Amino acid sequence: MLDSLQQSAPLAVTVAAVLGLLLGSFLNVVIHRVPRMLEREWAQQAAEQRGEHAPAVERYNLVVPRSHCPACGHRIGALENIPLLSWLVQRGKCAGCGTAIPVRYPIVELATAALSAVAIWRFGATAEGLAAVLLTCFLIALAFIDFDTQLLPDSMTLPLLWLGLLFNLHGTFAPLPAAVIGAMAGYLSLWSIYWLFKLSTGKEGMGYGDFKLLAALGAWFGWTALPAVVLLASVVGAAVGIALIVVARHGREVPIPFGPYLAGAGLLALYFREPLGRLFGMG
Where does the pLDDT of residue 244 fall: very low under 50, low under 70, confident under 90, or very high at 90 and above? Predict the structure, then answer.
């Protein structure tokens, strides 16, 4: 099967797109449940710190309980859980109560399918292509979680960092020394900006999750990619922030998550390394 995929680029891209739809469906679960899993964990830890006995709660993870409608509790069957197709057939509504299913669900599935196909088209059915799909999935999930909750969970950013170093043991995307330096420089650069801003204004300009996400991107692409990643994320973030203030009357004091822009810049660095390298002098 692997030989067939390596010998036929159209077949490999098609398989990647189909698998991407399935991965996108799983990412929707991750985006929805991981923040709630963290809230439960924090509540339990807070109760233990207060010396209280944490109340028993039902198991809640990425597998249990089964997917259901949050409005009516209707359990989603197999035929209602086909990526993209089920949403279209049901016209974006719950089969049990008719409540609208957010359009984000098919968007995440389509984005994951499209970017997975691009990854395999760009890198082939190889370890590099698999790594690109894996990185893409992490970045999509982190971007949406941060957009919703302004959280970048350690349970995702830290494994992403270690995976970057693992794939670069043999220089998949960057030489290992550059990847190690990239992880350190990525964290310390935003950490330094955070403290300079806090000491000068008394406010926090970003969260520690942003440091860890940039460290992870440094581990994947090496330290030479960091200036381009930070510049791209900052420019897009500033443009979107200004647009929200002017058009949507978004309050200046309301924080805007930086993670989605870092994730987007990471995807650009993944798929457009050559032109970005010529533009920014990336190694």
Answer: low
The closest of 146, 106, 136 to 25, measured between CA atoms, is 106
Alpha carbon distance 186, 202 (integer Å): 23
Q: How confident is the model at residue 192 (pLDDT cuts 50, 70, 90)?
A: very high
SS3 216: helix
Q: Decide: helix, strand or coil at residue 68.
A: strand
Q: Cα(first)–Cα(last) distance of the chain, in Å?
A: 35
* Residues in Cβ contact with 255 at an 8 Å cutoff, skipping those fewer than 6 apart: 150
Query: Is 97 within 8 Å of 72 (Cβ atoms)?
Result: yes
Interatomic CA distance for residues 47 and 99, integer angstroms: 35
DSSP state letters, 115-150? HHHHHHHHH-SSHHHHHHHHHHHHHHHHHHHHHHHS
Range of lowest pLDDT (85-89, 254-258, 277-281): 277-281
For 7-39, the pLDDT digits (tens) are 678 888 999 999 999 999 999 999 999 999 998
Length of the chain: 283
**Residues 244-255: b if buried by 16+ CB within 10 A, e if exposed:** eeeeeeeeeeee
The model's pTM is 0.90
**Residue with token string 């810049």:** 265
**Contact criterion met (CB below 8 Å) for 161 and 212:** yes
For 70, residues 6+ apart whose C-beta sits below 8 A from its C-beta are none
> How confident is the model over 119-129, as pLDDT tens digits?
999 998 899 99
